Amino acid sequence: MTKFELIYFNINGNAGGIRLLFDYLKVSFTDTLITDEEWPKIKDTTPFGQVPVLIIDNKIQLAQTTAIYRYIGAKYGAIAEILEDQALCDAFGEFICDVVSRGRAMVKSKGQQESNEQQYAKSMEYSRFANELFAPVFNKQFAKNGGHFVVGKKITWLDFLLANVTDRLLLLLNLEENEHFQQLKRHRDLIFGLPGLEKQVKEREKLGKNTIYRGESKNYEP
């Protein structure tokens, strides 16, 4: 049996959906949570100076969020059935990373106490991208796909990535009642309500209280 260790900050962040995916697939893994203070000592041990990192059988270090999702999905059947749909999942996954980068910039700006002007500008960019691009793209795709899932008629790794990011968007931008995010909210609730995820969903509430990006800016990716 393959042994997995997932290394990430003690927050939900980019690893939140990976944890849910592991639990949904009933795959055992070691969830190594690091603190903001511990990160500078760990950074140079990672492939690209970033987390999450998935260590496979104590040998392979797999970095980059979507690569980890795709690997787990492919290994355990949470992947689209045809190559074209797999490629669509990859494309939507890369698009999701665009909104994640803007959210990270906003949180980092606040955590490192940048000027009010800088914090406001990054918050507005995050909100603009979420409302003008992110929500319309996925509302259109859900309507086109005609089902509960983003691509195809079965659950894939992409659904966990999207649900995790949607949950962060709804919280950080206070979008729970926004009419343009109701389909995304329903999708998030569907994924979070899957059997076997109860413990991990509760754990999200605890991790949601933690913060990062409070140290030296050079310790973090742009």
From TrEMBL:
<dbReference type="InterPro" id="IPR010987">
    <property type="entry name" value="Glutathione-S-Trfase_C-like"/>
</dbReference>
<protein>
    <submittedName>
        <fullName>Glutathione S-transferase</fullName>
    </submittedName>
</protein>
<dbReference type="GO" id="GO:0006749">
    <property type="term" value="P:glutathione metabolic process"/>
</dbReference>
<feature type="domain" description="GST N-terminal">
    <location>
        <begin position="2"/>
        <end position="80"/>
    </location>
</feature>
<dbReference type="GO" id="GO:0004364">
    <property type="term" value="F:glutathione transferase activity"/>
</dbReference>
<dbReference type="InterPro" id="IPR050213">
    <property type="entry name" value="GST_superfamily"/>
</dbReference>
<dbReference type="InterPro" id="IPR036249">
    <property type="entry name" value="Thioredoxin-like_sf"/>
</dbReference>
<dbReference type="InterPro" id="IPR040079">
    <property type="entry name" value="Glutathione_S-Trfase"/>
</dbReference>
<dbReference type="Pfam" id="PF02798">
    <property type="entry name" value="GST_N"/>
</dbReference>
<feature type="domain" description="GST C-terminal">
    <location>
        <begin position="82"/>
        <end position="213"/>
    </location>
</feature>
<dbReference type="InterPro" id="IPR004045">
    <property type="entry name" value="Glutathione_S-Trfase_N"/>
</dbReference>
<dbReference type="Pfam" id="PF14497">
    <property type="entry name" value="GST_C_3"/>
</dbReference>
<dbReference type="InterPro" id="IPR036282">
    <property type="entry name" value="Glutathione-S-Trfase_C_sf"/>
</dbReference>
<dbReference type="InterPro" id="IPR004046">
    <property type="entry name" value="GST_C"/>
</dbReference>
